[in-house]
Write a structure and sequence with these properties.
With 68 residues, the protein is mainly beta. The chain has one domain. 0% of the residues lie in helices and 38% in strands. The chain is globular, with a radius of gyration of 13 Å.
Length: 68
């Protein structure tokens, strides 16, 4: 895949984590499994692609952030 912004090759990351996953957004915080709908995976798996040149995350945005 290519970066949506600068057309460079992307780095794909897939990582397995446990229930100590933590995410903070504004006044919301979640320490649990990764929530669905953030375009970074879900449950105990994180998956995303990013550009090593410009830092752009690859995916469909904007997203509705609800950590509940």
């Amino acid at each position: 895949m290519k970066c949506q912004r600068c057309k460079s090759d992307l780095i794909y990351v897939m990582a397995k984590c446990d229930d100590r996953y933590c995410i903070q957004y504004k006044d919301q915080e979640r320490v649990d499994y990764a929530p669905k709908g953030l375009n970074i995976g879900e449950g105990d798996t994180l998956e995303f692609s990013y550009c090593p040149h410009c830092g752009q995350l690859s995916g469909e945005f904007p997203i509705n952030i609800n950590l509940e």
